[in-house]
Amino acid sequence: MKNPYLPYPVRIHEIITETQDRNLKTFKLVFLNPDDEASFVYMPGQFAELSVAGQGEVPIGIASSPTEKGYLMFTVNRVGRVTSYLHSMKPGDVMGVRGPLGNWYPWDEMKGKNVVIIGGGFAFTTLRSSIVWMLDPAHRGDYGDITVVYGARNPGMLLYRDELVAWEQRDDITMHLTVDATDDPQWKYNVGFVPAVTKEKAPSAENAYAIVCGPPIMIKFTLPVLADLGFAPERIITSLEMRMKCGIGMCGRCNIGTEYVCKDGPVFSMKKLASLPNEY
C-alpha cells in the first residue's frame, strides 16, 4: 500500500498566467515516473496536495480532466507561503503531488440528467475538470443539457478564457458568463452577481442536477435561488474546498460534526449538509 503522506514527484511542464493581476497561475505537471501516472486515478471534483520541499504543501482542486492524458493541471491562487513559492517556480522545476484525495461529483447519479454548473472566481477549477469530462465524446451522451453560469469580479479575473470562448461556440453546452462590474466596452456578456444571473438564466430543475462551487458568499446566496427554481436538496451539489487540510482526515482540522471534509468530502449534497452542524 502506498504511503498516503508520500507525494509523487512531478516536473512543471508549463505555467500559464490566468488573470490580469497575475495572482492566479495554472501549472501543468508531468509525472517523473510513468507508473506513478498510472496509479494517479481520479475523477472530477477531487483534489490533491501540492508540495514543495522545505516550504510545505497546500490542497488544490484538480483542474484537469481524467480524459486529458499525460499531465495534471492545477490553478493556484497566490495567497500564502507555499502558493507564493509555487508562483516563483519555473518550467522544469520538480515538486510533489499527493493524491488524489477526497470524493467527487456524483457522476453515476447524474447520468441521464441535465447538469447546471455554477461557478465563481478561482473555484472554477474542478468545474473546468467537470465540463471537459462531460464534453468528451466518450461521456457526452451520458448527460443531457449542460448549462454553465460562471462569474468573476471583472473580465480580467476570468479563468481559462480561450476555453470559455471555445465552449461558447459549441452547440452542446450553454454558457452564461458574468462579471460583477466592468467599464470594458468590448464586454458582450452579463453584468451582475452570479446568484442573480443564475435566477435569470438557469433552466428548469426538472430532471436536473446543479453543481455549485465558488466563494462562500456566492454559494450562500445561490443556494436559495436554486431552491426557488425547484432543485431538491439532494440534487444541489457543492464543494467545501475552503475546509480542506491534510487530505486524509488525520489532522482533525476539517471536520464538520462527524464528517471530515478531506476524507468524506469535499463534495456534499445540500441534503447531507442539512444534517450536519452549520459550521461551514
Keywords:
9 helices; 15 strands; 24% helix; 280 residues; globular; alpha/beta; seven-stranded mixed β-sheet
Please summarize what this structure is.
This protein has 280 residues and is α/β, with parallel strands linked by helices.
How would you characterize the overall build of this protein?
- This protein has 280 residues and is an alpha/beta fold.
- 24% of the residues lie in helices and 30% in strands.
- The protein has nine helices and 15 strands.
- The strands form three sheets. It has a seven-stranded mixed β-sheet with strand order 10-9-8-7-11-12-15, with helices on both faces.
- Helix 6 packs parallel to helix 7.
- The two termini are 33 Å apart.
Q: Which secondary-structure class do the elements indicate? A: alpha/beta
Total beta strands = 15
Tell me the β content.
Answer: 25-35%
- How would you state the average pLDDT, rounded? 93
Cα radius of gyration in angstroms: 18 Å
Give a quick account of the main beta sheet: strands, pairing sense, barrel closure: 7 strands, mixed
Determine the fraction of residues in helical runs and give it as a percent range: 10-25%
Instruction: Name the poorly predicted regions.
Output: none
Oligomer: single chain
| C-alpha end-to-end distance | 33 Å
3D shape: globular
Secondary-structure element order, as H and E?
A: EEHEEEHEHEHEHEEHEHEEEHEH
